[in-house]
Amino acid sequence: MKFFLDTANVDEIKRINDLGLCDGVTTNPSIINKEGRDFEEVVKEICQIVDGPVSAEVTSYEYEDMVEEARKLSKWADNIIVKIPMTEEGLKAIKTLSEEGIKTNCTLIFSLSQGIMAMKAGATFISPFMGRVDDMGESGKKLIENLRKVIDIYGYDSEIIVASIRHNKHLEEAALAGAHIATIPGKLFDKLWTHPLTTAGIEAFKKDWEAFENR
Ligand code: G3P
Q: Where is the active site (predicted)?
């Protein structure tokens, strides 16, 4: 399973990339807005830090505008993935861009049928929003399982990036459901490898070792 970081915070990205655990980055207009930096400048900087795919989202919603914007974004770096929202115009844009060899990430997916449409249009990645699906009282895990099932049955090339991951359980469920990638907010990352019993165990071992050495 690959880990992407769902952030545009360059310090967070550098730290986790240095751990060797960052396979890519996803951004969206809300994430970019949080950093308060120039869109092009921050995306280009992230693309230099990280070897893997970096998603940058279009901000227009009409087919022609999206395609034009996507062509421009794709030239910013070799590892840019153009994020396109799941709309009729978006599907049309994904189809055109995939024919031009521009990689896309179809975002804001909340149902299996939306996912299938994005795969069929040729999206390189599809982004179901696990937390927001759970918020609707439905099962994000089931959606990921079903998306994976369809990919395996029909041999679609699209990879699933699970987005809107809010806590450890979401990550664990995404892994068990067969997601190719989880995109994780920087804030959550450290919670994935920490556990109070691990901390307590280390403290106890340290104390006992000190007692042993002072005998
Ligand atoms: O990648 C999408 C993510 O940023 C949205 O998360 O928690 O607002 O549903 P959330």
A: 83
If you take atom 4 of ligand 1, which residue's CA is the nearest one? 164
Q: Which two tokens stand for residue 197?
A: 């019993």
Tell the residue number behind the tokens 């994005």, with chain if given. Answer: 118
E-only strand ranges, 17-170: 24-26, 54-57, 80-85, 104-109, 125-128, 159-162
Amino acid identity of residue 177, one-letter, is A
Helix segments in 136-185, DSSP class H = 140-154, 168-176
Nearest to 6 by CA among 205, 192, 200: 192
Q: Quickly state the pLDDT bin for 91 (edges 50, 70, 90).
A: very high
31-32-37 Cα angle (round to 5): 145
Element at 77 (helix H, strand E):
none
> Is the distance from the beta carbon of residue 2 to the nearest atom of ligand 1 less than 6 Å?
no
> Which amino acid would we find at residue 2?
K
Q: Which atom of ligand 1 is nearest to the CA of 183?
A: 1
- Whole-number Å distance, alpha carbon 97 to ligand 1 midpoint, is 25
Phi, psi of 61 (to 5 degrees): -125, 0
75: left (phi over 0), alpha (psi -120 to 50) or beta: alpha
pLDDT value for 169: 98
